[in-house]
Design brief:
The chain has 205 residues and is α+β, with helices and mostly antiparallel strands. It is 34% helix and 25% strand. It has a seven-stranded mixed β-sheet with strand order 5-6-7-8-9-4-10, with helices on both faces. Strands 1-3-2 form a three-stranded antiparallel β-sheet, covered by helices on one side. A hairpin with a 3-residue loop joins strand 7 and strand 8. The longest helix is centred in the last third of the chain and has 15 residues. It is globular and about 50 Å long.
């Protein structure tokens, strides 16, 4: 079990240690908690306040992105190549970041989650090559985004837009984006109080 969500410190850390078993990870996400740590560190569990989320109906698509979606010859698939998506998220270079938080242990754990049907991916293809995508945890009413990658300009946004539109059609409450970043804010994501996020998380209907 995890400590009470309100015991998280100002950085959002609620617990340190434990493992990345399928059971513990599922319990974590259903409790509004996720792991985030670097190689060589113990597992660090977070539940930040505020929480960055996107309500599907509030998705913003700029004119330039509408043009990309219309004119680029992308093929988008859902949950067809999870293993390659997480491998790319782990290894792709990110400007301003020395490395990745997706450790070997983390990668193996999420592959196990994928086999249970709870971890899923979005893939973007161009000329039969995987050029972008994202993966996360599908709770049935909330999709918890974990990581995305792009080998071609704007492709991670293409994957995210597809995910949000799919979730809207299937009446998902929101996309969990965890913590603030400009990239997702430009697409309509916003910060809400953790209490509000937990309330939506617990209310499946």
């Amino acid at each position: 079990m995890f400590p009470n969500i309100e015991t998280a410190n100002l950085d959002g850390i609620i617990a340190v240690g434990g493992d990345l078993s399928v059971e513990r990870l599922i319990l974590a996400y259903k409790s509004g908690i996720f792991p985030w740590y670097n190689e060589g560190e113990p597992v660090i569990w977070y539940s930040p306040d505020p929480r960055m989320v996107l309500y599907p109906k509030k998705l913003k698509i700029s004119k330039s992105m509408r043009s990309v979606l219309k004119n680029e010859n992308f093929k988008i698939t859902f949950n067809q190549n999870f293993e390659e998506v997480i491998a790319n998220c782990k290894t792709i270079y990110r400007k301003g970041q020395p490395g990745t938080w997706i450790t070997d242990e983390m990668q193996k754990a999420y592959l196990k989650l994928h086999k249970t049907g709870i971890a899923k991916s979005v893939e973007v293809w161009q000329n039969d090559e995987l050029v972008g995508g994202l993966y996360g945890i599908d709770l049935g009413h909330i999709f918890c985004g974990e990581s995305m990658f792009s080998k071609v300009s704007n492709v991670s946004k293409v994957a995210f837009i597809y995910l949000v539109q799919k979730c809207e059609k299937e009446n998902y409450k929101l996309i969990d984006c965890q913590v603030y970043n400009d990239h997702l804010a430009s697409l309509g994501a916003e910060e809400i109080p953790r209490k509000e996020f937990i309330k939506l998380l617990k209310k499946k209907i």
